[in-house]
């Protein structure tokens, strides 16, 4: 399993009138953590796009367990359990720093598109290789 942890500070602008993180903001946190994970693997989004491949969200889910508030320091754990082919599923758990229980859990599923044609394509070979290498490392590898 490939794991990566990103840290994010909750900004005032991330909260709603009830002074908790607005529910839609978590998908932005997921996006940031996903980008951090790819960068940690050595293949940032920008490089994938330069290769002519777009990664698009085709499914997104979040389960809210507890509320987070302004200035909380979040640890977003990103997990990939299998190498992509035509799709990739990325799981997320959002913790408040120092708290052992997740406040939010979710996932996104992405497909790969040829940037020139907009048609589905396979995941870039380099991405498949990097994730396969991470998955084959004994124990837990962090990107």
Question: What are the main properties of this structure?
Answer:
143 residues, alpha+beta, Thiol Ester Dehydrase, Chain A, seven-stranded mixed sheet, 3 helices, 7 strands, globular
CATH architecture annotation name = Roll
Name of the top-level CATH class: Alpha Beta
Averaging pLDDT over every residue, what do you get? 95
What value does the Rg take, in angstroms? Answer: 16 Å
Q: Quick one: how many beta strands?
A: 7
Outline type: globular
Structure commentary:
- This protein has one domain (about 1-140): Thiol Ester Dehydrase, Chain A.
- Helices cover about 25% and strands about 35% of the residues.
- It contains three helices and seven strands.
- The chain has helices at about 25-40, 45-50, 125-135; strands spanning about 1-10, 55-65, 75-80, 85-95, 105-115, 120, 140.
- Strands 1, 2, 3, 4, 5, 6 and 7 form a seven-stranded mixed sheet that branches.
- A hairpin with a 6-residue loop joins strand 3 and strand 4.
- The mean pLDDT is about 95.
Condensed summary:
The chain is an alpha+beta fold and 143 residues long. The chain is built from three helices and seven strands. The chain has a single domain, classed as Roll (Thiol Ester Dehydrase, Chain A).
